[in-house]
Design goal:
The protein is 30% helix and 20% strand. With 235 residues, it is an alpha/beta fold.
Length: 235
């Protein structure tokens, strides 16, 4: 039995390729006794699948689930409840390593743990290779130059907001496509951006797919996909 509190680590495991893990994340993962990750009942954890070959059966695994796209006021009590198993481990003095797809602090669910625990427990965040960078490398096109404004736009925004933001950006990543794909494609068409924009699905994963926007079936767009609009500058 120990009196000291556990430490919380949020480690970025990158966009999919298990080799895109930092040495620091790898070291923490290999030495972790408790490994936590976001996992819905009906879907296995993507972050866990990325590092599955580095885990061992002596590690305690703690799945947790934050439902997506809830009104923040409705979400708060559910999120408070979801983190209880992790709180129990930390209070018992166990370090907890939380696996985060991409980077933990870039639209990552780790942020809900960070805001709840960082003031109580020693917390360390290990950055990860983030999906816009992985997608730019996958399509092999320079993303932003010099003083370019690079915008990250959730596809959940309205057509009007997307159009305004795209007009004001030199380069952009449009994330969280799924059922919003058709709306986004329509906006890109109206702005004359169809030839510049690229669609990338599951970048760096075994199932990576890059196709022209007009070849994408809008009814089969996975969550792990994005559209990049690279800079127009060519130097
Ligand atoms: C909640 S955000 C998480 C971002 C993540 N923390 C990161 O640093 O990349 C999820 C969105 O990131 C994008 N994304 C994450 N991984 C991806 C991948 N391997 N390929 C394409 N898009 C990805 C998708 O647009 C997805 O809807």
């Amino acid at each position: 039995m120990t009196n000291s509190k556990g430490r919380l680590y949020g480690i970025g495991v990158g966009p999919g390729d298990p080799e895109l893990l930092t040495l620091k994340a790898y070291r923490l993962l290999k030495s972790a006794s408790v490994v936590a990750y976001q996992s819905a009942d009906d879907r296995p954890s993507v972050a866990r699948s990325i590092v599955a070959s580095y885990l061992n059966d002596r590690q305690i695994e703690v799945p947790f689930h934050f439902p997506r796209a809830l009104d923040p006021y409705q979400a708060k009590p559910l999120y408070d409840k979801a983190v209880i198993p992790i709180a129990d481990h930390l209070a018992a003095g166990h370090d907890v390593v939380v696996l985060c797809e991409g980077d933990p602090l870039f639209y990552g669910s780790f942020m809900y743990l960070f805001t709840r625990f960082a003031h109580q427990y020693e917390t360390e965040v290990v950055p990860g290779v983030s999906s816009p960078m992985a997608c730019a490398s996958a399509i092999g096109i320079p993303l932003s130059y010099r003083n370019d404004i690079f915008s990250v736009l959730p596809a959940t925004l309205s057509s009007e907001v997307l159009a305004t933001q795209l007009v004001n950006a030199d380069a952009a990543a449009i994330i969280k496509l799924s059922r919003h794909f058709a709306k986004v494609r329509d906006v890109l068409q109206k702005l004359g951006l169809m030839t510049r924009a690229r669609y990338i699905e599951r970048a760096t994963m075994a199932e990576q797919r890059i196709v022209a926007l007009d070849e994408v079936d809008a009814d089969r767009v996975p969550y792990f996909s994005m559209i990049l609009v690279p800079s127009n500058v060519q130097l």
